[in-house]
Amino acid sequence: MKPFPMQSANWRSYVRKIPALPAMVARRVTRRPCKGYSSARPFFEDKYGLEIGGPSPIFRQNELIPVYDLCKLIDDCNFSSHTIWTSSDETQQFGRRLGRQFVAEALDLREIAGSTYDFVLASHVLEHLANPLRALEEWKRVLTDKGMLVLVVPHKGGTFDHRRPYTKFEHIEQDYLQNRSEDDLTHLDEILSMHDLGLDRPAGSFAEFRERCLRNASVRAMHHHVFNPETLNRMFKRVGLTTLGVVIEKPEHVIAFARV
Q: 87-91, 198-202, 248-252: which has the minimum mean pLDDT?
């Protein structure tokens, strides 16, 4: 299979953002949060939460989903104590009311008792999981009755996934029924042939990107799935969550709010 050519500059990422520029500029000026945030805000104010894969800029003050400065305390969970996204000054950088920091798989939070958190956050995490339904099921388990899940996934039109097809719900359900683990490489051929390296400069050359994908179980950089709002709704329903809203914030985000 032929790799797509690597670009010497990331100019195409800016070109793809042009249609969303008016909305992006307006948001920068007004500092407005995303649509649906005002209804979700009471679930964060002076509440206890868990973030999977944090910290994330999108939850900072004046960003799309400002949570960090509202909540009482927020615990954090990553699959490893050191990831390719880890920053040594992350706590200071994001001004978080940081509680415990768990090292655990996103779909196996056995250290955490059920009904512990008022809200769970996960920004650009679900696409990195081979078994996303299992993860949603686990995140629901640790939520209190009527607790809130805030999920952010890539909007494929503004990211390096734009050439890939959306993953069908039926495929995601089969991953769940077959209990896929994080060493799964089912989507590797699709990723190698359709991933736009010109929009993913940190991935390096095609050879470097391929090598990283092959050791994904230890790195977790690969996007197993590509989600759209319809599939997210079906996934929430499958695990017993009620969708409150799914919004697209171009160019890069799909944001979903769901409740137990």
A: 87-91
